Amino acid sequence: MAVEPWSELHENRAVVHFLLSGESVFYRRTASVVLFLLASVSLSAARDLAIVSNKSNTVSGLALPEFVKLCKAEMNRWPDGKPITFIMRPPSTPEMKMLLEKVYELSPDQVKNLIATANHGRANHPAIVIADSDEDLVNKVASLPGAVGVVDVYAINSSVTVVKLGGKLPLEPGYVLHGN
Questions:
Q1: Smallest Cα–Cα separation from 71: which of 89, 92, 95?
Q2: Residue 129 pairs with which residues in a beta bridge?
Q3: Is residue 76 within 8 Å of 84, Cβ to Cβ?
Q4: Which one of 44, 67, 140, 151 is CB 3.0 to 4.6 Å from 62, fit for a cystine?
Q5: Residue 47 has what pLDDT?
Q6: Residues 80, 13: Cα–Cα separation, whole Å
Q7: C-alpha distance from residue 155 to each of 39, 76, 77, 131, 158 (Å)
Q8: CA 90 to CA 109: how far, in whole Å?
Q9: Dihedral sign, CA of 67, 73, 79, 80?
Q10: What is the pLDDT of residue 31?
Q11: How high is the mean pLDDT of the chain?
């Protein structure tokens, strides 16, 4: 009889272990789904931006100070004499938050005022153009000689050329417009 309680205890431990491992699998799966959703939300908020150029432009890279001047319409011609048009998404959109912080160092309202000032008197060839979507931005850059724009890296297609910033391409370590 002394052996039976031990065998019952052994069987009970096996059942308890099975139940607990079943629960832990449920909790691990639930935690995995929650972590995946949190990572997806944070990744969608942190976009990597790229500078794209019209294919006819000869520029292949910009230093950060040059890019800042270009964004603020302080540079109006390329070295080959073509007029520059900078194309961006609306300053108040979440996609442009990083550009406003790292390049403009201005609030969305201040950037809107800068755009209005830069475009004053330039109705036929504005210095800065606002695009409604990434697709619209890429299409405008592709169709306008001298145009350059800032777009999400995943919106780039073969109709535009990617421009290096500070000697780096998007997604390379140290790239200034990296989303994190």
A1: 89
A2: 87
A3: yes
A4: 67
A5: 78
A6: 81
A7: 21, 26, 26, 13, 10
A8: 10
A9: positive
A10: 52
A11: 82
Q: What is the pTM of this model?
A: 0.72
Across residues 27-34, what is the average pLDDT? 58
Amino acid of residue 60: S
User: Which CATH code fits 49-165?
Assistant: 3.40.190.10
- The rounded distance, in Å, linking the Cα atoms of 118 and 138 is 21
Residues in the chain: 180
Contact between 149 and 87 (Cβ < 8 Å) = yes
Say how far apart CA 101 and CA 28 lie, in whole Å. 38
Give the Cα-Cα-Cα angle 70, 60, 51 (nearest 5 degrees).
Answer: 50
72 neighbors 104 (Cβ within 8 angstroms): yes
pLDDT of residue 102: 87
DSSP annotation of 77 reads: B
Query: Which one is predicted more confidently, 131 or 82?
Result: 131
Q: CB within 8 A of 62, min separation 6: which ones? A: 51, 70, 163, 164, 165, 166
Q: Residue 2 corresponds to which amino acid?
A: A
